[in-house]
Amino acid sequence: MVYTTDDIEFAKLSPKDFERLCFELLLKYGYRNLIWRQGGADNGRDIEGYFEFINPINIRKTKWFFECKHYTKKGVPPDQLNSKIAWADAEQPSFLVLFVSSYITTASRTWLEKLQKTKQYKILILEGDEIKRRLIQFPDLVERFFASDRFEQLFLQIKNHWLRHRIDPSYESIIAIIENIDLSRFDLNDLGFILMSFHRNYRLFDLRNIDYGDFFYEAIFPLLPYLIKFSSNKELRNFEEYKTDFEYLGGVGVFDKAEDYEESALTFQFYELHLHYNESRDKWKIGYYLFLKDDCNQAFELFSLDDSDFDTSSKFYSKFSFDTLTELAVNLSDEFCEKISKFGIKLFEVD
Length: 351
Prior knowledge:
single chain, 351 residues, alpha+beta, Trna Endonuclease, Chain: A, domain 1, five-stranded mixed beta sheet, five-stranded antiparallel beta sheet
């Protein structure tokens, strides 16, 4: 999802959670041998670790101390930093970094500037606004620590369940997410995950009791204006390297109906693809392809990789027609296009 600094409220965190957040940020930055000194005496730092500066001649290994000060409404005064400076003087790290969720007072800043002239180690200060600017570079951290809306939490949970256990989200949970989350928060990979999951659910409706209701296809239409923003009108970007070497593993939609010589009111086609299926097992991948058309005669192609990012690309057709079928990335044959034109009854309707 897409986040701004306004979504980060340190007041929601406990002091321990703020330390955990700083620890996770340092992992993102590539610090090594990190130790989080939780509870008891911390010997002047909450976290310590190492960072290697690599140049063509050698590798310089530097030692870092990190102190996390969680203040929500006021600045950090000098007396809260005295013991940290004393421990740094005793152990001589390369750097002492102060993470401050609010800010340091003017008195603290002046005091530290004067002290710096007498120290061999470097003192660095990261205050609240700067920490926020750094955090939005890592949306997964913002999601984990600051997503408070229950529907945002639901979205994060179903993505996590899919990633870890390949448990597909239910139709009902997808509808709840679409109806209750600010859709501008989604990036293209989020939209791809929702749309692919939604269309995978279509196959289950034939097995469900009639009391569950119909498959409400128009539920996805609010997503489409946001999808246009991310779409290209030239190519389906990350499908290019696979389009000559894939195998269909399964699908559902209007193309499948046409293949069976059945009339269809569907306006989508979903495929699961075996990518690089001629390669060894350590090279091939699974991907998902989706063609869909809305009631305004606009159409989209989406392609997503079955990976941790759910990497997705999208191509947009502002006006769909029979001729558009030959432009689709899956390279439909002329004979197959004729089938679709005959049995895809609703596909070419214009309201």
